[in-house]
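Input/output pair, single chain:
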Amino acid sequence: MGVEKREKKNKVTKEMTSQNKQAKAVEVDQRVANPKRDANVMRKLRIDKLVLNISVGESGDRLTRAGKVLQQLTDQTPIFSKSRLTVRGWGIRRNEKIACHVTVRGPKAEEILEKGLKVKEYELKKANFSSTGNFGFGIQEHIDLGIKYDPTSGIYGMDFFVVMARPGGRITKRRRCKSVIGATHKLTKEDTMKWVTQKYDVTLANH
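Output:
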C-alpha cells in the first residue's frame, strides 16, 4: 500500500508541475504578444552577424581556393578552421586545416543573406530555426550567388548561419554590471520565423 501511495503522490506532483509550466509558458506568450510591448523600438529584431562557412575536408590548394571564394564574396579575409580529431577513414589529421569561414555584419550581411535566400527560392524549413531564434541553411553551388565561375577554383557548397539579436543584449557581455536578459526579451524560434516571413516574404515548410 505504501508503494502505491508514493507512486500516486509522485504522479500528482508531476501533473501539477507540468500544469504550472504550461501556465507560465502561456503567461510569457501573452506578454510577448502585447501590442504595446511589440511597438517598443528595443524589441525590433536585427541581424547580429552572418557566418559563411565552406567545409572542404582537406588542406591544400582546394582549401586555399575556397578561402578565395569567400574573400571574393565578402571582401574580407577568411579564417581557417582546424580539425579537433584524427579520422583515419577520412584521411584527416588532428589540427589540420579543413574548412574556412568568415563573419559578416551590417548592410553587407543583409545583402548576402538576400542572395542566399534567393538561391533557396525564399523557402526554408521550420527545422532550420533554433530554439534561441537563430537560423541557418546551405546552398550547393556558390556560383548561384552571382560569383563568376572560375575553372581553376571549381564549385563549392556553402553554409549560411544567421545570428539574430535585439537591442540591449550587451548587458550580458559588458565588463561592468553584467545582468541577465528577461524572459520576455529573449528571442524565440517563433519571433525569428515571423521576422523572416515579413521581411523577406519567405515560405516556411513543416518538413
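The helical segments are 2-32, 35-38, 61-74, 107-119, 189-200. The longest helix spans residues 2-32.
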